[in-house]
């Protein structure tokens, strides 16, 4: 039995590895072939090592509240290489009128769970604070789906949207909350309103429960890998049987004949398989499946994507006057700057910069600032350095400068995304031996991608073995 996986990002590699595990456990030999367009694996994950700096051009960590990435690291022997965030200064700043203001302690995305730090915070005006606290008394009117912006304004007011929700969530999805579906991106908030009416009340309860359950070894909210995130795809690749991964194989078309999948590459190779897992971005998958299922292809092509630029700049510590007493900052659109977010990489995680140096990782672009992706490297570096110098009081030029553009890399879950995905799932079921996986569908973070790759592998294996 042969299964082909298209795409060698974290989703494709997780799918291939899960197939390999299942084939070993169940004693049914599955031949796995992974076809990757580029001459490297990892997709969006890209670590570089330059002059003692560890540069993450893609993801720099993953969240531990979703178990799938942690579980995978354990299964492939990477648990000892997981590193936690620095135990000190675990706070994030928001830029307000050109100054970095810390998000008050106990403030989670849009709701305060501790009132004293919130009331003392200069991040909100008194009117804004009052409006946020009024959430405690606002009746619950959960909708089937609405934008994150309309939900935030309805429950917490416009200032909460502009000063925290837009920059915090916007910098994760590189998108405008006016275009993001609450149900598809932050379903637990919708659930909280349904169950508890007030999110402040619900979050305070959750906090209390969290404290009671704090026993045994716990990971910080985010973890990284000591030698960079690229370690994960590389380890997965090294554990797969030799010749599983075929680099420089760009898939051109997918057809089906006599119950077999036929995959043709731009290089002219043809592969035959009983099962097929497609993990390419939705717009690529749409074009690959167009001949086979035009309706499915049309639905896939309706998932929009955003582009962004990651800029890593390194400085001498002595050249930065700001105390860097946090993990980074986010910039509200109302500040009219180009940097969307900045992570103090070498403060957040150990081993990212040589001693006496600081590595800063900035995001530009996204749907709020799409032009930045079109600039040349020198304009991107000059703009990022200028804005960092203003915000962090930096006096000299950077020592290291790295620019990486992620073009059409981040799917945007708009209102109606959940229905669209349900429709896609139903269509996929009509094609025996086909599964789709990746960030386009039910979560963009690495744990979600790993989970979706593993589920795809399980459904293909069980379908073919039944
Ligand atoms: C800038 C940025 C920062 C991020 N930061 C974080 C973070 O800190 N933490 C986190 O959890 N998540 C983060 N994410 C999200 C997460 O990294 C991605 O969602 C995830 O890596 C996507 O993996 P994937 O395998 O689904 O897709 P991709 O990584 O896009 O992989 C798809 C693969 O398919 C290949 N391919 C495309 N077309 C073809 C073809 N025709 N034939 C063969 N192969 C093809 C591509 O070359 C690529 O290798 C970030 C995303 C971005 C863009």
Mean pLDDT: 95
> Count of DSSP helices?
16
Low-pLDDT residue intervals, each spanning 5 or more residues: none
Report the CATH C-level class of the largest domain.
Alpha Beta
Q: What is the architecture of the largest domain at the second tier of CATH?
A: 3-Layer(bba) Sandwich
The portion of residues forming beta strands comes to 15-25%
Hetero compounds = flavin-adenine dinucleotide
Helix content: 25-40%
Description:
With 466 residues, this protein is an alpha+beta fold. The protein has 3 domains: 2-43 and 230-303 and 414-465, FAD/NAD(P)-binding domain (3-Layer(bba) Sandwich), CATH 3.50.50; 47-88 and 305-411, Protoporphyrinogen oxidase, mitochondrial, domain 2 (Polyamine Oxidase, Chain A, domain 2); 102-212, Orthogonal Bundle (protoporphyrinogen ix oxidase, domain 3). It contains 16 helices and 22 strands. The strands form 6 sheets. Strands 8-7-18-19-20-17-21 form a 7-stranded mixed β-sheet. The protein has a 5-stranded parallel β-sheet with strand order 12-2-1-16-22. It has a 3-stranded antiparallel β-sheet with strand order 5-11-6, with no helix packed on it. Strand 14 and strand 15 form a beta hairpin. 47% of the residues are buried. The site of flavin-adenine dinucleotide has 36 residues, from helix 1, strand 17, strand 21 and helix 16. Residues 6-12, 35-38, 43-45, 58-62, 250-251, 279-281, 284, 308, 310, 406, 409-410, 438-439, 444-446, 449 line the site of flavin-adenine dinucleotide.
Could you provide a short overview of the structure?
This protein is α+β, with helices and mostly antiparallel strands and 466 residues long. The protein has helices spanning 10-26, 68-75, 115-120, 126-133, 148-156, 158-173, 182-185, 187-196, 199-212, 231-239, 282-289, 294-301, 345-348, 377-392, 417-429, 446-465; strands at 2-6, 31-35, 47-50, 53-56, 62-63, 82-84, 92-96, 99-102, 107-108, 111-112, 222-225, 245-246, 251-257, 260-265, 270-273, 275-278, 305-316, 328-330, 341-343, 357-365, 400-411, 434-436.
